[in-house]
Amino acid sequence: MRSSGPPIQFAGTGHDPLDIAISAILTGHCASRILLGFERLARFKPEFSPISSGPGGCFPNRMARPLRLHAPGMLHHLMSRGNDKREMFIDDVDYARYLHLLEHSAERFGVDVVAFCLMPNHVHLLVKPNIHPLSRMMQHLNSAYCGWFNRRHGRVGHVLQGRYKSQIVERGPSFVRVLRYIVMNPVAARKVAQPSGWSWSSYRETVGIGDGSTFLSLTEVWRAFDARDSQNAQRSFKAFIEQGMSSEEALDGLLVGSEGFIRSFQPSLAAYRDNRELIHAERFAARPSLDELIPEGTRGSDRDRAAHRAFHSYAFTLSEIAAHVRASPSAVWVWARRAAPAA
Q1: Distance CA 42, CA 297 (A)
Q2: pLDDT tens digit sequence for 227-246
Q3: Which residue from 211, 186, 215 is spatially nearest to 201, judged by alpha carbons?
Q4: Above pLDDT 90, what percent of the chain?
Q5: Per the structure, how many domains does the chain have?
Q6: Do 101 and 242 share a structural domain?
Q7: Less packed terminus of the chain by CB within 10 Å, N or C?
Q8: How far apart are CA 35 and CA 13, in angstroms?
Q9: Are residues 160 and 229 in the same domain?
Q10: Do both 87 and 39 map to the same domain?
Q11: How, if at all, do strands 112-119 and 122-128 pair?
């Protein structure tokens, strides 16, 4: 006998069935409905198997990897964090060593360093790769620094927490917002009252404080504020930073920029959609919205095909689609199933 009530919801995106099963039990679903849900999932999404494990199975690896796109000539915001939020830098010698290694790594791999900020337990870099993927520079830099740090301080184990985070940033308003976010980190963390008070960021050199002997490539900064007059650009940069003395909000996502900029990456990201070893949000960073996929008023077979596409191709959950079309998840499931043979 089949149980009543809505079907167990699966997101088609690698959600752990153990979590789903526990949730189902807590919400009053009986074991038969859980098994029915797995059966439906196995039929509708063949890459899921109730008895397999590992990537592509019902119990995939929970620790997804960041998606790396090689985008030469584009600006990238990189972040590394100390393991378990512990300090990466204990004293000025550590900070200076990291900058020394950053300079040599950037030169070796042809990367322009536009801005940086070294905080006690994390690092922000704003860089522009040219020929070589940034992963090569970051592997070289982090490996060299972590080995040196452990030897100097008599430690063992990981210095950094996992892989570094990377964002591709559009030039223009998004670039200058990220730039301000980076140099304002010490102020936001209440380490100093003004960004000029922090010795381990690029702010001081950018505004002309200090000996100007570092390895920064400031062309992108001058171009953003005044391409014709670098001195005026420097003044404009300083004024822009001072206008945002309150903490700038964090900028999330693989892609930071306008809607058009983000959409331009759809072809590049399409090849990664089915790779569940990569972070879900990054695989679908450039996906269209549900408003575009299922416009208001879509009915009949058009609605069925749109629901199928939203669920299968762009990994929206049944609940997300249902909320958008003001229907039940069960109804969305039926529509998507109905469109599957013709898809």
Answers
A1: 31
A2: 889 899 999 999 999 887 55
A3: 186
A4: 41
A5: 3
A6: yes
A7: N
A8: 19
A9: yes
A10: no
A11: antiparallel
99 and 224 both lie in a single domain:
yes
Most confident option among 4-13, 100-109, 326-335: 100-109
The pLDDT of residue 227: 84
Residues 38 and 88 in one domain: no
Query: The domain containing residue 214 runs over which residues?
Result: 75-255
Q: What is the CATH number of the domain that holds 230?
A: 3.30.70.1290
Residue 70 within any structural domain of the chain: no
Cβ neighbours of residue 156 under 8 Å, at least 6 residues apart?
150
In a domain, 343, yes or no: yes
Edge to edge, the sheet with strand 255-256 lists 112-119, 122-128, 75-81, 165-169, 255-256
Same structural domain, 218 and 153 = yes
Question: What is the residue whose two structure tokens read 């042809």?
Answer: 110
Q: What is the pLDDT of residues 188-214, one digit of tens each?
A: 999 999 999 999 999 999 998 877 667
Q: Is the distance from CB of 10 to CB of 41 less than 8 angstroms?
A: yes
Hunting for tokens 């397999």 — which residue is that? 52
- Kindly report the number of other CB atoms within 10 A of residue 13's CB atom: 17
The answer to whether residue 273 is domain-embedded is: no
pLDDT score, position 220: 95
The per-residue b/e assignment along 150-183, b for 16 or more CB within 10 angstroms, e otherwise, is eeeeeeeeebbbeebbbbbbbeeebbbbbbbbbb
Per-residue confidence at 250, pLDDT binned at 50, 70, 90?
low
pLDDT digits (tens, 9 = 90+) for 159-177: 998 888 899 999 999 999 9
How far, CA to CA in Å, does 23 sit from each of 40, 194, 281, 315? 17, 48, 22, 20
Q: Would the pLDDT of 254 be above 50?
A: yes
Given the DSSP bridges, would you call strands 165-169 and 112-119 parallel, antiparallel or unpaired? unpaired
Q: Which residue has the higher pLDDT, 239 or 12?
A: 239
Cβ-contact 92, 85 below 8 angstroms: no
pLDDT of 134 > 70? The answer is yes
- 189 to each of 117, 183, 184, 200, 247, how far by Cα in Å? 12, 11, 9, 14, 9
* pTM score, whole prediction: 0.70
